[in-house]
Design goal:
With 241 residues, the chain is of the alpha/beta class. The protein folds into two domains: 2-62, no CATH class; 69-239, Zn peptidases (Aminopeptidase, 3-Layer(aba) Sandwich), CATH 3.40.630. The chain has seven helices and five strands; from the N terminus they run H-H-H-H-E-E-E-H-E-H-E-H. It has helices spanning 2-33, 43-62, 69-88, 109-118, 154-166, 181-187, 219-239; strands at 126-131, 137-144, 150-151, 172-176, 191-198. Strands 1, 2, 3, 4 and 5 form a five-stranded mixed beta sheet that branches. Strand 2 and strand 3 (150-151) form a beta hairpin. Bound molecules: zinc ion. Residues 71, 105, 207-208 line the site of zinc ion (ZN).
Amino acid sequence: MQSRFFSSIFTVFSILGYTSLVAVPIYLAGRVLSLWGNYLPFTPVIVIIQGILSALILQADFTRYSPGANDNAAAVGMVLACARYYKNQPLKNTEIILLASGCEEVGCYGIRRYLDQYRAEVKEARFIDYELIGRGLPTVTVREGLLFKQKCDEELAEIANDACRQTGIPMRRNESQVYGEGYVINKQGFAGITLTADPEGKPDVYWHTPRDTMDKLDKATLEMMFNWTKNILEEIDRGAV
Ligand SMILES: [Zn+2]
């Protein structure tokens, strides 16, 4: 299955990365000791790349983790808010499935596994993904991905656009240089959009750092995101008759 395939590739790269931490110094030492001096012009380049890779891996593992308020506890809160709201007033024609899939940062394992397992059951589903929704203005990520870009579902983006207008705030569209669940969902042929809050004009440093704390979340933004979500769901529900 496609997602298993990508997961395996990621695993292979991780193993290669960690192996190189050990193997490259041994290799370089071997070259120096065996006096293959002719090849040594490449040595400084290899050493520098190796040093950077090692520093990245060690820095990530041995420094303080991000508290993860905006990325992505805010989204978990939104899922819980939806659960509380729709538990007592379900939509007329639409079933809502709430999913906190996790493991996005390391390769979207959560959503990949979910789609693998429930592919048939959710093939008609429309997916709404939340990413960094705690500060800023309502935005749909229309294209995402690092090397290969993936477009979001255009019909859903239009629904989101109308739904946002109803809140009185115009919707923005952005592109993401990284990939998240929205990428995987659309890549695998499902319909999905990623809702985010674009902190235009505000400092955008409160994610993936120790500064991503709860006090940085903006209550008004979260309320707006919730109202936007309700409008989207109601619009989908009207169309589902
Ligand atoms: Zn993140």
